[in-house]
Protein backbone atom coordinates (compact mmCIF):
# COMPACT_ATOMS: atom_id res chain seq x y z
CA UNK A 1 0.00 0.00 0.00
CA UNK A 2 1.16 3.47 -0.76
CA UNK A 3 0.31 5.24 2.42
CA UNK A 4 3.07 7.74 2.38
CA UNK A 5 4.20 10.35 -0.01
CA UNK A 6 6.77 9.30 -2.48
CA UNK A 7 9.93 11.16 -3.19
CA UNK A 8 9.25 12.72 -6.46
CA UNK A 9 10.18 15.39 -8.80
CA UNK A 10 9.32 19.00 -8.35
CA UNK A 11 5.79 20.21 -7.84
CA UNK A 12 4.83 20.69 -11.42
CA UNK A 13 5.53 17.08 -12.07
CA UNK A 14 8.49 17.70 -14.29
CA UNK A 15 11.24 15.14 -14.50
CA UNK A 16 13.72 15.64 -11.70
CA UNK A 17 16.75 17.73 -12.53
CA UNK A 18 19.80 15.74 -13.26
CA UNK A 19 22.45 16.45 -10.65
CA UNK A 20 25.95 15.11 -10.74
CA UNK A 21 26.05 15.03 -7.00
CA UNK A 22 26.48 11.50 -5.89
CA UNK A 23 25.03 10.04 -2.80
CA UNK A 24 28.16 10.66 -0.80
CA UNK A 25 27.30 14.34 -1.03
CA UNK A 26 24.05 13.88 0.84
CA UNK A 27 24.38 16.42 3.57
CA UNK A 28 23.46 15.14 6.93
CA UNK A 29 22.03 17.65 9.32
CA UNK A 30 21.96 17.75 13.10
CA UNK A 31 25.26 19.57 13.00
CA UNK A 32 27.20 16.42 12.74
CA UNK A 33 30.52 16.61 11.04
CA UNK A 34 30.41 14.61 7.90
CA UNK A 35 33.58 12.89 7.00
CA UNK A 36 34.40 12.40 3.42
CA UNK A 37 33.56 8.91 2.37
CA UNK A 38 36.61 7.08 1.22
CA UNK A 39 36.78 6.95 -2.50
CA UNK A 40 35.66 3.66 -3.81
CA UNK A 41 38.32 1.69 -5.50
CA UNK A 42 37.55 1.32 -9.14
CA UNK A 43 36.59 -2.20 -10.03
CA UNK A 44 39.39 -3.88 -11.89
CA UNK A 45 38.55 -4.28 -15.48
CA UNK A 46 38.29 -7.89 -16.29
CA UNK A 47 38.06 -9.41 -19.65
CA UNK A 48 34.80 -11.26 -19.72
CA UNK A 49 34.95 -14.63 -21.29
CA UNK A 50 32.25 -15.11 -23.91
CA UNK A 51 31.22 -18.33 -22.19
CA UNK A 52 30.21 -16.50 -19.01
CA UNK A 53 26.43 -16.09 -19.11
CA UNK A 54 25.18 -12.53 -18.81
CA UNK A 55 23.69 -11.80 -15.41
CA UNK A 56 20.05 -10.93 -15.90
CA UNK A 57 18.92 -8.03 -13.74
CA UNK A 58 15.83 -8.85 -11.67
CA UNK A 59 13.22 -6.21 -10.92
CA UNK A 60 10.26 -5.49 -8.70
CA UNK A 61 7.02 -5.65 -10.68
CA UNK A 62 6.27 -2.16 -9.41
CA UNK A 63 7.79 0.73 -11.34
CA UNK A 64 7.73 4.44 -10.57
CA UNK A 65 6.92 6.80 -13.41
CA UNK A 66 7.38 10.53 -12.83
CA UNK A 67 6.94 13.75 -14.77
CA UNK A 68 3.69 12.66 -16.38
CA UNK A 69 1.71 15.19 -18.43
CA UNK A 70 -0.98 16.72 -16.17
CA UNK A 71 -3.82 15.60 -18.42
CA UNK A 72 -2.88 11.97 -18.78
CA UNK A 73 -5.40 9.74 -17.03
CA UNK A 74 -5.24 6.17 -15.86
CA UNK A 75 -6.33 4.78 -19.22
CA UNK A 76 -3.77 6.92 -21.01
CA UNK A 77 -1.01 5.62 -18.77
CA UNK A 78 -2.11 2.03 -19.28
CA UNK A 79 -2.20 2.40 -23.04
CA UNK A 80 1.28 3.97 -22.99
CA UNK A 81 2.77 0.95 -21.25
CA UNK A 82 0.58 -2.05 -22.05
CA UNK A 83 2.73 -3.09 -24.95
CA UNK A 84 5.13 -4.42 -22.30
CA UNK A 85 2.45 -6.61 -20.74
CA UNK A 86 -0.65 -6.41 -18.56
CA UNK A 87 -0.51 -3.80 -15.80
CA UNK A 88 -2.55 -1.71 -13.45
CA UNK A 89 -1.79 1.86 -12.40
CA UNK A 90 -1.70 3.09 -8.85
CA UNK A 91 -0.76 6.20 -6.89
CA UNK A 92 -0.93 7.16 -3.22
CA UNK A 93 -4.49 7.58 -1.94
CA UNK A 94 -5.88 6.69 -5.35
CA UNK A 95 -9.07 5.23 -3.92
CA UNK A 96 -9.70 8.27 -1.72
CA UNK A 97 -8.92 11.00 -4.24
CA UNK A 98 -11.41 9.68 -6.82
CA UNK A 99 -9.51 11.20 -9.66
CA UNK A 100 -8.65 9.58 -12.96
CA UNK A 101 -5.48 11.68 -13.08
CA UNK A 102 -2.46 11.10 -10.83
CA UNK A 103 -2.57 14.31 -8.79
CA UNK A 104 1.15 14.86 -8.40
CA UNK A 105 2.36 13.90 -11.82
CA UNK A 106 3.65 10.48 -10.84
CA UNK A 107 2.24 7.00 -10.59
CA UNK A 108 3.24 3.40 -10.14
CA UNK A 109 2.95 0.81 -12.85
CA UNK A 110 2.12 -2.58 -11.36
CA UNK A 111 2.96 -5.15 -13.98
CA UNK A 112 1.62 -8.66 -13.85
CA UNK A 113 4.98 -10.08 -14.91
CA UNK A 114 8.52 -9.14 -14.04
CA UNK A 115 9.51 -9.74 -17.65
CA UNK A 116 7.45 -6.68 -18.61
CA UNK A 117 9.73 -4.51 -16.48
CA UNK A 118 12.80 -5.91 -18.23
CA UNK A 119 11.24 -5.07 -21.59
CA UNK A 120 10.30 -1.57 -20.44
CA UNK A 121 13.84 -0.92 -19.19
CA UNK A 122 15.22 -2.05 -22.55
CA UNK A 123 12.91 0.36 -24.34
CA UNK A 124 14.03 3.33 -22.23
CA UNK A 125 16.77 5.78 -23.08
CA UNK A 126 19.44 6.08 -20.41
CA UNK A 127 20.39 9.63 -19.47
CA UNK A 128 23.16 9.47 -16.88
CA UNK A 129 21.60 7.13 -14.35
CA UNK A 130 18.05 7.97 -15.26
CA UNK A 131 15.76 6.11 -17.56
CA UNK A 132 13.52 8.06 -19.88
CA UNK A 133 10.48 7.02 -21.82
CA UNK A 134 8.00 9.02 -23.87
CA UNK A 135 4.25 9.22 -23.46
CA UNK A 136 1.51 11.29 -25.03
CA UNK A 137 -1.58 12.91 -23.53
CA UNK A 138 -4.44 14.81 -25.21
CA UNK A 139 -2.49 18.10 -24.98
CA UNK A 140 1.15 17.00 -25.06
CA UNK A 141 2.61 14.55 -27.46
CA UNK A 142 5.80 12.70 -26.88
CA UNK A 143 6.65 13.95 -23.38
CA UNK A 144 9.70 12.53 -21.63
CA UNK A 145 8.88 10.81 -18.35
CA UNK A 146 11.19 9.30 -15.81
CA UNK A 147 11.04 5.53 -15.29
CA UNK A 148 12.44 4.25 -12.03
CA UNK A 149 12.46 0.49 -11.67
CA UNK A 150 13.64 -1.21 -8.48
CA UNK A 151 16.47 -3.68 -8.94
CA UNK A 152 16.26 -6.66 -6.61
CA UNK A 153 20.05 -6.67 -6.39
CA UNK A 154 19.72 -3.38 -4.48
CA UNK A 155 17.84 -5.12 -1.64
CA UNK A 156 20.91 -6.29 0.25
CA UNK A 157 24.41 -5.15 0.99
CA UNK A 158 26.89 -7.48 2.63
CA UNK A 159 30.39 -6.34 3.48
CA UNK A 160 31.75 -9.79 4.26
CA UNK A 161 29.69 -12.94 3.80
CA UNK A 162 31.83 -14.87 6.25
CA UNK A 163 30.83 -12.59 9.14
CA UNK A 164 27.40 -13.37 10.58
CA UNK A 165 25.04 -10.49 11.34
CA UNK A 166 24.96 -9.76 15.07
CA UNK A 167 21.42 -9.00 16.31
CA UNK A 168 22.92 -6.90 19.10
CA UNK A 169 24.47 -4.54 16.61
CA UNK A 170 21.47 -4.21 14.30
CA UNK A 171 19.24 -1.15 13.97
CA UNK A 172 15.93 -0.56 12.28
CA UNK A 173 15.86 2.50 10.04
CA UNK A 174 12.52 4.06 9.13
CA UNK A 175 11.43 6.87 6.82
CA UNK A 176 14.06 6.20 4.17
CA UNK A 177 13.65 7.50 0.64
CA UNK A 178 12.55 4.51 -1.38
CA UNK A 179 15.14 5.34 -3.97
CA UNK A 180 18.10 4.30 -1.82
CA UNK A 181 19.79 0.98 -2.41
CA UNK A 182 21.07 -1.13 0.47
CA UNK A 183 24.64 -0.21 -0.47
CA UNK A 184 23.76 3.48 -0.33
CA UNK A 185 22.08 3.10 3.07
CA UNK A 186 25.19 1.25 4.27
CA UNK A 187 27.37 4.05 2.94
CA UNK A 188 25.38 6.73 4.76
CA UNK A 189 25.34 4.82 8.04
CA UNK A 190 29.04 3.96 7.79
CA UNK A 191 29.86 7.62 7.34
CA UNK A 192 27.73 8.59 10.31
CA UNK A 193 28.44 5.85 12.84
CA UNK A 194 31.10 3.43 11.65
CA UNK A 195 31.46 0.32 9.54
CA UNK A 196 28.24 -1.33 8.42
CA UNK A 197 28.55 -5.04 7.72
CA UNK A 198 25.02 -5.62 6.46
CA UNK A 199 22.11 -3.53 5.19
CA UNK A 200 18.79 -4.91 4.00
CA UNK A 201 15.97 -2.90 2.43
CA UNK A 202 12.54 -4.13 3.54
CA UNK A 203 10.30 -4.84 0.59
CA UNK A 204 6.69 -5.88 0.35
CA UNK A 205 6.47 -9.61 -0.21
CA UNK A 206 4.23 -9.53 -3.25
CA UNK A 207 5.69 -6.80 -5.44
CA UNK A 208 9.10 -6.73 -3.77
CA UNK A 209 9.14 -2.94 -3.75
CA UNK A 210 10.86 -0.96 -0.96
CA UNK A 211 8.73 -0.03 2.02
CA UNK A 212 10.98 2.81 3.15
CA UNK A 213 12.54 0.86 6.02
CA UNK A 214 15.74 -1.12 6.40
CA UNK A 215 17.79 -3.11 8.85
CA UNK A 216 21.41 -2.15 9.28
CA UNK A 217 24.01 -4.17 11.17
CA UNK A 218 27.20 -2.51 12.33
CA UNK A 219 30.56 -4.17 12.85
CA UNK A 220 30.96 -2.62 16.28
CA UNK A 221 28.60 -2.26 19.21
CA UNK A 222 29.76 1.37 19.74
CA UNK A 223 28.40 2.30 16.31
CA UNK A 224 25.09 0.63 17.16
CA UNK A 225 24.77 2.54 20.42
CA UNK A 226 25.76 5.82 18.80
CA UNK A 227 23.17 5.37 16.03
CA UNK A 228 20.39 4.64 18.53
CA UNK A 229 21.43 7.60 20.67
CA UNK A 230 21.02 9.90 17.68
CA UNK A 231 17.55 8.50 16.95
CA UNK A 232 16.75 10.99 14.17
CA UNK A 233 18.90 12.13 11.33
CA UNK A 234 17.95 14.28 8.38
CA UNK A 235 19.04 13.33 4.91
CA UNK A 236 19.23 16.52 2.93
CA UNK A 237 17.87 16.86 -0.53
CA UNK A 238 20.40 16.08 -3.21
CA UNK A 239 18.01 16.12 -6.13
CA UNK A 240 18.84 12.65 -7.32
CA UNK A 241 18.29 10.08 -4.62
CA UNK A 242 16.69 12.30 -2.03
CA UNK A 243 14.35 14.78 -3.63
CA UNK A 244 13.28 16.42 -0.40
CA UNK A 245 14.69 16.51 3.11
CA UNK A 246 13.91 13.22 4.81
CA UNK A 247 13.87 12.67 8.54
CA UNK A 248 15.06 9.18 9.18
CA UNK A 249 14.45 7.36 12.43
CA UNK A 250 16.86 4.84 13.93
CA UNK A 251 15.76 2.32 16.56
CA UNK A 252 17.05 -0.98 17.86
CA UNK A 253 16.04 -3.82 15.58
CA UNK A 254 14.24 -6.26 17.85
CA UNK A 255 14.56 -9.90 16.91
CA UNK A 256 11.96 -12.40 18.03
CA UNK A 257 14.21 -15.41 18.58
CA UNK A 258 16.84 -14.20 21.03
CA UNK A 259 17.76 -15.54 24.42
CA UNK A 260 18.00 -13.47 27.58
CA UNK A 261 21.28 -11.55 27.80
CA UNK A 262 21.26 -11.69 31.58
CA UNK A 263 20.81 -15.44 32.17
CA UNK A 264 23.53 -15.99 29.63
CA UNK A 265 26.02 -14.47 32.06
CA UNK A 266 25.01 -16.73 34.96
CA UNK A 267 26.26 -19.90 33.36
CA UNK A 268 22.97 -21.63 34.24
CA UNK A 269 21.71 -21.59 30.68
CA UNK A 270 19.80 -18.85 28.97
CA UNK A 271 16.03 -18.58 28.78
CA UNK A 272 14.19 -17.25 25.72
CA UNK A 273 13.82 -13.47 25.87
CA UNK A 274 10.35 -12.00 26.04
CA UNK A 275 11.39 -8.37 26.42
CA UNK A 276 13.84 -5.97 24.97
CA UNK A 277 14.86 -2.83 26.81
CA UNK A 278 15.39 0.01 24.33
CA UNK A 279 16.76 2.37 26.94
CA UNK A 280 20.23 3.41 25.90
CA UNK A 281 21.68 2.23 29.22
CA UNK A 282 20.31 -1.30 28.66
CA UNK A 283 19.75 -2.24 25.01
CA UNK A 284 19.45 -5.86 26.07
CA UNK A 285 17.13 -8.82 25.79
CA UNK A 286 15.55 -10.17 28.98
CA UNK A 287 13.43 -13.06 30.16
CA UNK A 288 10.69 -12.11 32.61
CA UNK A 289 12.68 -13.03 35.71
CA UNK A 290 15.72 -11.10 34.60
CA UNK A 291 13.66 -8.08 33.55
CA UNK A 292 12.20 -7.86 37.04
CA UNK A 293 15.54 -8.53 38.67
CA UNK A 294 17.52 -6.03 36.61
CA UNK A 295 14.88 -3.30 36.69
CA UNK A 296 14.30 -3.48 40.42
CA UNK A 297 16.80 -0.68 40.90
CA UNK A 298 14.96 2.59 41.48
CA UNK A 299 17.07 4.51 38.97
CA UNK A 300 16.08 2.26 36.07
CA UNK A 301 12.65 1.11 37.21
CA UNK A 302 11.05 3.45 34.70
CA UNK A 303 12.44 1.58 31.68
CA UNK A 304 9.60 0.31 29.60
CA UNK A 305 9.81 -3.07 27.89
CA UNK A 306 9.32 -3.85 24.24
CA UNK A 307 7.40 -7.10 24.19
CA UNK A 308 8.65 -9.80 21.90
CA UNK A 309 6.11 -12.00 20.23
CA UNK A 310 7.81 -15.31 20.04
CA UNK A 311 6.46 -17.59 17.39
CA UNK A 312 7.92 -20.79 18.69
CA UNK A 313 7.71 -20.54 22.47
CA UNK A 314 4.97 -19.98 25.00
CA UNK A 315 4.96 -17.71 27.97
CA UNK A 316 6.80 -19.29 30.86
ZN1 LIG B 1 17.06 -14.14 31.94
ZN1 LIG C 1 16.37 -1.33 30.90
TrEMBL record:
Organism in which the protein naturally occurs: Apolygus lucorum
Q: Output the Gene Ontology cellular-component terms.
A: cytoplasm; neuron projection; nucleus; synapse
Q: Which PANTHER family match?
A: CYTOPLASMIC POLYADENYLATION ELEMENT BINDING PROTEIN CPEB, TRANSLATIONAL REGULATOR ORB2
For this UniProt record, give its keywords in alphabetical order, as a comma-separated list: Repeat, RNA-binding
Task: From the UniProt entry, list the residue stretches annotated as the region Disordered.
Answer: 29-51
> What GO molecular function terms would the record report?
mRNA 3'-UTR binding; mRNA regulatory element binding translation repressor activity; ribosome binding; translation factor activity, RNA binding
Gene Ontology biological process terms from the UniProt entry: negative regulation of cytoplasmic translation; spermatogenesis
Identify the InterPro entries for this entry: CEBP_ZZ, CEBP_ZZ_sf, CPEB, Nucleotide-bd_a/b_plait_sf, RBD_domain_sf, RRM_dom
This chain belongs to the protein called RRM domain-containing protein
- Residue spans with biased composition (Acidic residues)? 32-44
- The highest taxon in the source lineage is Eukaryota
Q: Which residues form the RRM domain?
A: 61-152, 169-251
Amino acid sequence: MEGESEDVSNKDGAVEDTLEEKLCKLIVSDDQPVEEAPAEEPAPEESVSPSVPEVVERYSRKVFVGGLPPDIDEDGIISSFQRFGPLIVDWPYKAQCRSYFPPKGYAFLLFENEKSVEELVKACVRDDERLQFWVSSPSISHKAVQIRPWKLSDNDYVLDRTVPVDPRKTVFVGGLPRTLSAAEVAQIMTRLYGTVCYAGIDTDPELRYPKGTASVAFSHRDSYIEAIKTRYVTLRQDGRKCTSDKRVEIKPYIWDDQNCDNCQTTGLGSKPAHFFCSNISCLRYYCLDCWLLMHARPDIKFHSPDYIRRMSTRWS
